[in-house]
Amino acid sequence: MSLPTAVRHDFDRAQQAAGAPLVWLHLGADTLWLVREGDAQGADSMSLDLGTDSTARLFFRSDLPLPVELERAIDHVEDELMRALAWTGGSATLATDHSLVRGLAQTETALSLESVEALFQRLASGALGDPSALKGLPAGREAAATLLILRELMHHLKFNQVVVATPSPVVSLP
């Protein structure tokens, strides 16, 4: 699958703003794109069959997933991420303008891996019956799927933080 024009545009915009090695994360409904600087021929990209809507639809029956649903979703996401092990973050900055990640960050411009882990632990505590743990977290199946995917991606691909970029202006596709 070739890199969509809008995703390439978002990567180019974020890379210009960052001025450092960058991996752009585009979380779509059914596909996750990772984009980084490539060779002289342009950006290097990878798509994975992970999406916020598809993960929520496949694994979560209600807005607050059950613990067993979270476990099944984690297994699926980890299996798909194994295809992307070459995308280890290292010194690159992970960045996205996804609205649900922005909701998780609230007023912060970046989320550390530790912050994402803490947010996920709050989701897991809520799933185990502690409604107070969910206070301040975005609600809904897609929000839970977004947090789960982000946590697993950062953990397995070794990203220490995710920068929350300003939303991209709408780009019309040809």
What does this structure look like?
This protein has 174 residues and is of the alpha/beta class. It has one domain (5-162): Nucleotidyltransferase, domain 5 (2-Layer Sandwich), CATH 3.30.420.150. The protein contains 6 helices and 6 strands, in the order αβββααβαβααβ. It has a 6-stranded mixed β-sheet. It starts with a helix and ends in a 10-residue tail after the last strand. 35% of the residues are buried.
What's the helix and strand layout?
Elements: H1 5-18, E1 22-27, E2 32-36, E3 44-48, H2 52-59, H3 67-81, E4 93-96, H4 99-105, E5 110-112, H5 113-127, H6 141-156, E6 161-164
Parallel strand pairs: 1-4, 4-6
Antiparallel strand pairs: 1-2, 2-3, 5-6
- Termini gap: 16 Å
Number of domains: 1
The CATH class is Alpha Beta
- The CATH superfamily turns out to be Exopolyphosphatase. Domain 2
Q: Which percent range describes the beta-strand content?
A: 15-25%
What class, by secondary structure content?
alpha/beta
Radius of gyration of CA atoms, rounded to a whole number: 16 Å
Instruction: Based on the coordinates given, report the CATH architecture.
Output: 2-Layer Sandwich
What's the tally of helices?
A: 6
